[in-house]
């Protein structure tokens, strides 16, 4: 084998190994992240379903209490009226109410009328779950949830179901309702399929880049071997330098886009969880949900760490759905609701057609600024200003917080670095003005190549 071929091979093999390893690690971390995000997503869906169930039972309980408190009804008449009411109440396509006595005798079951009067205390689903006993226990403990397998109308196929039971205290009746979890599973499956599709496309893209890169290197090696024998060593060195520059640029882009994407939403969720933990922990006794919230917060922290290893280059959905001003308004309102910090938005771009890349940059800058203010500023007032002075858009965010040392912040904060790089990528300028005790000002000048609207 000739020296030139050996040199070319030495260049290709490490490249193949490096890109192959990076592709494998990226795929592995992507799947791990997808699993964790899906777990959080499914948990949130189930919690939403639980809340909906409890609200339905609470509404039914209110109606039942009105019957019980009616002085014109005897106890037998009130019980009969409650049974009729529960038999008629329904929600959704397959939501109905049931009732049982403390010894497990069915009192109301509109879907399976033949159950009425039967002793179902020892009734089990196909998994051996003594569901009536569990529902009675949940009701006697003040109301609670239980998952079991039950026949779903109208086809009466057995499916997973989440039930909520409460107690009608005057008679110690257990009553409740439930919903089938197939909608949760279906939604999670759709999201999982979307994740898998994105991962596969990313992996296929990486493999395509790998093949193209290898072909380019081979062609370059042939060109060097045929036409530039004397410059082979220098050309190979130049190729290595180009590869290193490409690697540095890609890493910078990876870090910027990752930090500005899903990480912001996860951080916001983390703050909400922490706020919920603080609120629930303020009583004399720990709230039963504190343990689950702490576990969710721990899982979320791990998810945030994993997210930092995956690259996203996404345009904010709100910009496509609402436009720049409504998107910023929604962002600031959510921020104020979450933090109780007053935000004033000064938007003077109504007559300007802002390009998509500038819109994305403005939204990301505002998002990052609000995140930093929430985490570090200890402020109670924020002002966001967007003005147009041809040919530039001027963006400013100021707060009345405790301020900081800009030099130290630029060295330690990846968010500030990402904002600066994002502005410079589109040809703008970025400035940061702050001092301890005097708040902070983030200012950016963004070139706008569009003319004013004619309407």
UniProtKB/TrEMBL annotation:
CC cofactor: [4Fe-4S] cluster
Matches recorded under InterPro entries: HATPase_C_sf, HATPase_dom, His_kinase_dom, sCache_2, Sensor_HK_TwoCompSys, Sig_transdc_His_kin-like_C, Sig_transdc_His_kin_sub3_dim/P
Main location: membrane
Keyword Nucleotidyltransferase tagged: no
Occurrences of domain Histidine kinase (ranges): 257-450
Coiled-coil intervals, chain numbering: none
Gene Ontology terms: cellular component: cytoplasm; plasma membrane
Class in the EC hierarchy, top level: transferase
Compartment annotation: Cell membrane; Cytoplasm
Catalytic reaction list: ATP + protein L-histidine = ADP + protein N-phospho-L-histidine
UniProt-listed SMART domains: Cache_2 (SM01049), HATPase_c (SM00387)
SUPFAM superfamilies referenced in this protein's UniProt entry, alphabetically: ATPase domain of HSP90 chaperone/DNA topoisomerase II/histidine kinase
Name of this protein: Oxygen sensor histidine kinase NreB
